[in-house]
Specification:
This protein is α+β, with helices and mostly antiparallel strands. 21% of the residues lie in helices and 27% in strands. The chain has a four-stranded mixed beta sheet with strand order 1-4-3-2, with helices on one face. The longest helix has 12 residues.
Length: 96
């Protein structure tokens, strides 16, 4: 049996977002964009989200809290971000 380099039904690219309040971001994305959370793992500290998977239509997003000890910093800590995400929606005024 051979192992597939890309799992079946997995997208080739999945945004992985490090944020300063993952739980709050997940709630915001659900309200504003209609995302659905499929999975969440908490860090050993029981507070921070180590990994969460969201679905936006057929698109997967990974969201997690900052982990400075692993050099995973949010745009809030960095003072900005070099990343931009472009999302097409059918009713832009409602989404905004």
């Amino acid at each position: 049996m051979s192992v597939r380099p890309i799992p079946e039904a997995a997208p080739i690219l999945t945004p992985h977002l490090v944020v300063s309040d993952a739980a709050g971001a997940i709630e915001l994305y659900a309200r504003a964009l209609g995302t659905r959370e499929t999975f969440r793992t908490l860090a050993p500290d029981g507070r921070r989200i180590m990994f969460a998977e969201l679905l936006l239509g057929e698109t997967r997003l990974f969201v997690l809290d900052e982990f400075p000890e692993q050099k995973a910093f949010s745009p809030t800590t960095l003072g900005g971000t070099p990343v931009a995400l472009h999302l097409y929606v059918s009713r832009v005024d409602e989404a905004f």
